[in-house]
Amino acid sequence: MIDVFAHVLPPKFLAQMLQIDSNVLEKNSWMKNPLLTDIDKRLATMQPNQQEILSMVNLNPEDFVDGDQAATLCEAANEELQQIASNSTSSFPAVVAMLPMNNIAEAMAIIDSQVINNPLVAGVQLFTRAIGKEITDESFSPLFAKMAESGKPIWLHPVFDKRKSDNNLTFSWEYEQTLAMNQIVTKNFFTKYPGLKIIVHHAGAMVPYFARRIFYIQGEARYEAFKHFYVDTAVLGNSRAIEMAVDFFGEDHVLFGTDTPLGIKPNGPTSVIKQSLDQSNLTSFQKKKIFTGNWQQLIQRKK
Question: Residue 31: which CATH number?
Protein backbone atom coordinates (compact mmCIF):
# COMPACT_ATOMS: atom_id res chain seq x y z
CA MET A 1 0.00 0.00 0.00
CA ILE A 2 1.38 3.38 -1.00
CA ASP A 3 -0.53 6.10 0.86
CA VAL A 4 -0.21 9.28 -1.18
CA PHE A 5 -1.88 11.61 1.33
CA ALA A 6 -0.32 11.05 4.78
CA HIS A 7 0.31 14.00 7.05
CA VAL A 8 3.05 15.02 9.48
CA LEU A 9 3.94 17.93 11.74
CA PRO A 10 7.70 17.49 12.28
CA PRO A 11 9.09 18.49 15.69
CA LYS A 12 11.55 21.20 14.60
CA PHE A 13 8.97 22.92 12.43
CA LEU A 14 6.35 22.69 15.18
CA ALA A 15 8.79 24.22 17.68
CA GLN A 16 9.42 27.12 15.31
CA MET A 17 5.70 27.73 14.84
CA LEU A 18 5.11 27.60 18.60
CA GLN A 19 7.73 30.32 19.04
CA ILE A 20 5.75 32.47 16.62
CA ASP A 21 2.37 31.65 18.18
CA SER A 22 2.38 29.69 21.44
CA ASN A 23 -1.34 28.95 21.07
CA VAL A 24 -1.17 27.48 17.60
CA LEU A 25 -2.10 23.97 18.76
CA GLU A 26 -4.92 25.28 20.93
CA LYS A 27 -6.34 26.98 17.86
CA ASN A 28 -6.02 23.75 15.88
CA SER A 29 -6.80 21.07 18.46
CA TRP A 30 -7.01 18.31 15.85
CA MET A 31 -3.25 18.74 15.36
CA LYS A 32 -2.65 17.49 18.91
CA ASN A 33 -1.92 14.04 17.59
CA PRO A 34 1.36 12.45 18.69
CA LEU A 35 1.57 10.42 15.48
CA LEU A 36 1.96 13.66 13.52
CA THR A 37 5.16 14.58 15.32
CA ASP A 38 6.63 11.44 16.90
CA ILE A 39 7.95 9.53 13.90
CA ASP A 40 9.00 6.48 15.94
CA LYS A 41 5.44 6.11 17.23
CA ARG A 42 4.18 6.60 13.69
CA LEU A 43 6.41 3.84 12.35
CA ALA A 44 5.23 1.48 15.09
CA THR A 45 1.62 1.80 13.89
CA MET A 46 2.39 1.10 10.23
CA GLN A 47 1.82 -2.25 8.58
CA PRO A 48 4.81 -4.07 7.02
CA ASN A 49 3.52 -3.50 3.47
CA GLN A 50 2.57 0.16 4.04
CA GLN A 51 4.40 3.19 2.65
CA GLU A 52 3.45 6.84 3.07
CA ILE A 53 4.13 9.93 0.98
CA LEU A 54 4.46 12.60 3.66
CA SER A 55 2.90 16.05 3.43
CA MET A 56 2.53 18.76 6.05
CA VAL A 57 -0.69 19.49 7.90
CA ASN A 58 -2.10 22.89 7.04
CA LEU A 59 -0.05 24.95 9.47
CA ASN A 60 1.09 27.37 6.82
CA PRO A 61 3.80 29.96 7.55
CA GLU A 62 2.22 32.62 5.32
CA ASP A 63 -0.69 32.79 7.75
CA PHE A 64 1.66 33.92 10.54
CA VAL A 65 4.73 35.75 9.19
CA ASP A 66 5.96 37.90 6.32
CA GLY A 67 7.15 36.53 3.01
CA ASP A 68 10.85 36.33 3.80
CA GLN A 69 10.34 34.49 7.08
CA ALA A 70 7.72 32.23 5.49
CA ALA A 71 10.22 31.22 2.81
CA THR A 72 12.87 30.44 5.42
CA LEU A 73 10.42 28.33 7.41
CA CYS A 74 9.28 26.42 4.32
CA GLU A 75 12.82 25.68 3.20
CA ALA A 76 13.74 24.37 6.65
CA ALA A 77 10.54 22.34 6.88
CA ASN A 78 11.20 20.76 3.49
CA GLU A 79 14.69 19.81 4.62
CA GLU A 80 13.27 18.29 7.81
CA LEU A 81 10.74 16.30 5.77
CA GLN A 82 13.50 15.01 3.53
CA GLN A 83 15.54 13.96 6.56
CA ILE A 84 12.60 11.97 7.92
CA ALA A 85 12.28 10.20 4.58
CA SER A 86 16.02 9.61 4.31
CA ASN A 87 16.02 7.94 7.71
CA SER A 88 13.31 5.49 6.67
CA THR A 89 12.92 5.29 2.90
CA SER A 90 11.27 1.87 3.16
CA SER A 91 8.35 3.50 4.99
CA PHE A 92 8.51 7.03 3.58
CA PRO A 93 9.76 6.87 -0.01
CA ALA A 94 8.98 10.52 -0.77
CA VAL A 95 7.69 13.79 0.65
CA VAL A 96 5.69 16.77 -0.60
CA ALA A 97 7.19 20.24 -0.30
CA MET A 98 5.72 23.33 1.35
CA LEU A 99 5.69 26.69 -0.45
CA PRO A 100 5.46 30.25 0.98
CA MET A 101 2.35 31.60 -0.71
CA ASN A 102 3.07 35.18 0.34
CA ASN A 103 6.41 35.10 -1.48
CA ILE A 104 5.91 33.66 -4.96
CA ALA A 105 9.41 34.51 -6.12
CA GLU A 106 10.88 32.42 -3.30
CA ALA A 107 8.26 29.71 -3.85
CA MET A 108 9.48 29.42 -7.43
CA ALA A 109 13.07 29.28 -6.19
CA ILE A 110 12.15 26.48 -3.76
CA ILE A 111 10.64 24.47 -6.60
CA ASP A 112 13.89 24.90 -8.53
CA SER A 113 16.21 24.09 -5.62
CA GLN A 114 14.26 21.54 -3.55
CA VAL A 115 11.74 19.89 -5.87
CA ILE A 116 12.46 19.54 -9.58
CA ASN A 117 15.60 17.39 -9.53
CA ASN A 118 15.14 15.90 -6.08
CA PRO A 119 14.06 12.22 -6.08
CA LEU A 120 12.93 12.46 -2.44
CA VAL A 121 10.47 15.29 -3.19
CA ALA A 122 7.48 14.05 -5.18
CA GLY A 123 5.85 17.44 -5.72
CA VAL A 124 4.37 20.40 -3.84
CA GLN A 125 1.29 20.92 -1.72
CA LEU A 126 -1.07 23.81 -2.33
CA PHE A 127 -4.29 24.65 -0.53
CA THR A 128 -7.70 25.66 -1.81
CA ARG A 129 -7.14 29.19 -0.53
CA ALA A 130 -4.02 31.12 0.44
CA ILE A 131 -3.56 34.55 2.04
CA GLY A 132 -7.26 35.24 1.54
CA LYS A 133 -7.23 34.44 -2.20
CA GLU A 134 -8.58 31.62 -4.31
CA ILE A 135 -5.85 29.22 -5.37
CA THR A 136 -6.56 30.17 -8.99
CA ASP A 137 -5.77 33.83 -8.32
CA GLU A 138 -3.54 35.18 -11.07
CA SER A 139 -0.71 35.80 -8.60
CA PHE A 140 -0.38 32.03 -8.05
CA SER A 141 -0.39 31.10 -11.74
CA PRO A 142 3.42 30.89 -12.02
CA LEU A 143 3.37 27.98 -9.57
CA PHE A 144 0.97 25.98 -11.73
CA ALA A 145 3.02 26.74 -14.83
CA LYS A 146 6.25 25.73 -13.12
CA MET A 147 4.82 22.47 -11.78
CA ALA A 148 3.27 21.57 -15.14
CA GLU A 149 6.67 22.08 -16.73
CA SER A 150 8.38 20.00 -14.04
CA GLY A 151 6.14 16.97 -14.59
CA LYS A 152 5.67 16.54 -10.84
CA PRO A 153 2.20 16.71 -9.25
CA ILE A 154 0.52 19.30 -7.08
CA TRP A 155 -1.22 17.98 -3.98
CA LEU A 156 -4.40 20.05 -3.42
CA HIS A 157 -5.64 20.12 0.17
CA PRO A 158 -8.70 21.97 1.48
CA VAL A 159 -8.71 24.77 4.05
CA PHE A 160 -11.49 26.82 5.57
CA ASP A 161 -12.69 30.02 3.96
CA LYS A 162 -12.25 32.31 6.95
CA ARG A 163 -14.87 34.71 5.67
CA LYS A 164 -17.47 32.13 6.74
CA SER A 165 -18.65 31.80 10.34
CA ASP A 166 -19.98 28.22 10.18
CA ASN A 167 -16.94 26.24 9.04
CA ASN A 168 -16.81 22.60 10.13
CA LEU A 169 -14.54 19.65 9.38
CA THR A 170 -17.34 17.36 8.22
CA PHE A 171 -18.63 19.38 5.27
CA SER A 172 -16.73 22.64 4.79
CA TRP A 173 -13.47 21.18 3.54
CA GLU A 174 -15.30 19.07 0.96
CA TYR A 175 -17.19 22.13 -0.25
CA GLU A 176 -14.01 24.22 -0.46
CA GLN A 177 -12.24 21.40 -2.28
CA THR A 178 -15.05 21.21 -4.81
CA LEU A 179 -15.05 24.97 -5.37
CA ALA A 180 -11.29 24.98 -5.97
CA MET A 181 -11.61 22.15 -8.50
CA ASN A 182 -14.39 24.07 -10.23
CA GLN A 183 -12.23 27.21 -10.33
CA ILE A 184 -9.34 25.27 -11.87
CA VAL A 185 -11.62 23.84 -14.55
CA THR A 186 -13.45 27.12 -15.19
CA LYS A 187 -10.15 28.92 -15.72
CA ASN A 188 -9.01 26.20 -18.14
CA PHE A 189 -5.84 25.35 -16.20
CA PHE A 190 -5.51 21.90 -17.76
CA THR A 191 -5.47 23.49 -21.21
CA LYS A 192 -3.42 26.52 -20.19
CA TYR A 193 -0.76 24.39 -18.47
CA PRO A 194 -0.31 21.18 -20.51
CA GLY A 195 0.96 18.32 -18.40
CA LEU A 196 -0.49 19.74 -15.17
CA LYS A 197 -1.11 16.98 -12.61
CA ILE A 198 -3.18 17.65 -9.49
CA ILE A 199 -3.92 15.10 -6.76
CA VAL A 200 -7.12 16.04 -4.93
CA HIS A 201 -7.90 14.90 -1.39
CA HIS A 202 -11.07 13.08 -0.25
CA ALA A 203 -11.93 11.26 -3.49
CA GLY A 204 -12.73 14.44 -5.38
CA ALA A 205 -15.13 15.75 -2.75
CA MET A 206 -18.56 16.50 -4.27
CA VAL A 207 -17.61 16.06 -7.91
CA PRO A 208 -18.38 12.34 -8.44
CA TYR A 209 -21.75 12.65 -6.72
CA PHE A 210 -22.79 15.68 -8.78
CA ALA A 211 -21.13 14.61 -12.05
CA ARG A 212 -24.32 14.75 -14.10
CA ARG A 213 -25.15 18.21 -12.79
CA ILE A 214 -21.72 19.26 -14.05
CA PHE A 215 -22.47 17.70 -17.44
CA TYR A 216 -25.89 19.29 -17.95
CA ILE A 217 -25.19 22.68 -16.34
CA GLN A 218 -21.57 23.35 -17.36
CA GLY A 219 -21.42 21.27 -20.52
CA GLU A 220 -19.48 18.31 -21.82
CA ALA A 221 -16.13 20.08 -22.21
CA ARG A 222 -15.92 21.06 -18.54
CA TYR A 223 -17.34 17.70 -17.50
CA GLU A 224 -14.43 16.04 -19.28
CA ALA A 225 -11.95 18.56 -17.85
CA PHE A 226 -12.81 17.48 -14.29
CA LYS A 227 -11.57 14.02 -15.20
CA HIS A 228 -8.01 15.36 -15.43
CA PHE A 229 -7.77 15.43 -11.64
CA TYR A 230 -6.23 12.57 -9.72
CA VAL A 231 -8.00 11.75 -6.45
CA ASP A 232 -7.32 9.71 -3.34
CA THR A 233 -9.50 7.34 -1.29
CA ALA A 234 -9.66 9.36 1.95
CA VAL A 235 -13.40 9.06 2.60
CA LEU A 236 -13.12 7.13 5.89
CA GLY A 237 -14.35 3.75 4.74
CA ASN A 238 -17.06 4.36 2.14
CA SER A 239 -16.81 1.62 -0.52
CA ARG A 240 -19.56 3.08 -2.69
CA ALA A 241 -17.96 6.52 -2.67
CA ILE A 242 -14.67 5.06 -3.85
CA GLU A 243 -16.50 3.17 -6.60
CA MET A 244 -18.12 6.43 -7.70
CA ALA A 245 -14.71 8.10 -7.79
CA VAL A 246 -13.34 5.32 -9.98
CA ASP A 247 -16.43 5.49 -12.19
CA PHE A 248 -16.01 9.22 -12.78
CA PHE A 249 -12.25 9.88 -12.71
CA GLY A 250 -11.28 6.51 -14.16
CA GLU A 251 -9.35 3.60 -12.72
CA ASP A 252 -6.02 5.25 -13.66
CA HIS A 253 -6.71 8.42 -11.66
CA VAL A 254 -7.58 7.05 -8.21
CA LEU A 255 -4.76 6.59 -5.69
CA PHE A 256 -4.73 5.03 -2.24
CA GLY A 257 -4.68 7.89 0.28
CA THR A 258 -5.98 8.02 3.82
CA ASP A 259 -5.32 11.33 5.62
CA THR A 260 -3.47 9.29 8.24
CA PRO A 261 -3.01 9.71 11.18
CA LEU A 262 -6.10 11.95 11.21
CA GLY A 263 -9.78 11.11 10.89
CA ILE A 264 -10.11 8.00 13.06
CA LYS A 265 -8.51 7.73 16.49
CA PRO A 266 -6.05 6.60 17.69
CA ASN A 267 -3.92 5.54 14.72
CA GLY A 268 -5.74 6.93 11.71
CA PRO A 269 -8.03 5.43 9.06
CA THR A 270 -5.61 3.25 7.08
CA SER A 271 -7.16 -0.08 8.07
CA VAL A 272 -10.71 1.17 7.59
CA ILE A 273 -10.01 2.58 4.14
CA LYS A 274 -8.10 -0.53 3.09
CA GLN A 275 -11.06 -2.64 4.21
CA SER A 276 -13.48 -0.47 2.25
CA LEU A 277 -11.40 -1.03 -0.87
CA ASP A 278 -11.15 -4.76 -0.23
CA GLN A 279 -14.93 -4.97 0.20
CA SER A 280 -15.75 -2.82 -2.82
CA ASN A 281 -17.05 -4.15 -6.14
CA LEU A 282 -13.90 -3.05 -7.91
CA THR A 283 -11.91 -5.75 -9.70
CA SER A 284 -8.67 -7.13 -8.30
CA PHE A 285 -6.85 -5.38 -11.14
CA GLN A 286 -8.44 -2.03 -10.26
CA LYS A 287 -7.60 -2.45 -6.57
CA LYS A 288 -3.98 -3.22 -7.36
CA LYS A 289 -3.77 -0.09 -9.48
CA ILE A 290 -5.23 2.01 -6.67
CA PHE A 291 -3.00 0.55 -3.96
CA THR A 292 0.28 0.86 -5.88
CA GLY A 293 0.17 0.89 -9.67
CA ASN A 294 -1.32 4.30 -10.31
CA TRP A 295 1.19 6.00 -8.03
CA GLN A 296 4.09 4.25 -9.75
CA GLN A 297 2.75 5.30 -13.15
CA LEU A 298 2.13 8.87 -12.01
CA ILE A 299 5.64 9.50 -10.76
CA GLN A 300 7.15 7.95 -13.88
CA ARG A 301 4.99 10.01 -16.24
CA LYS A 302 6.59 13.35 -17.06
CA LYS A 303 4.20 15.09 -19.44
Answer: 3.20.20.140
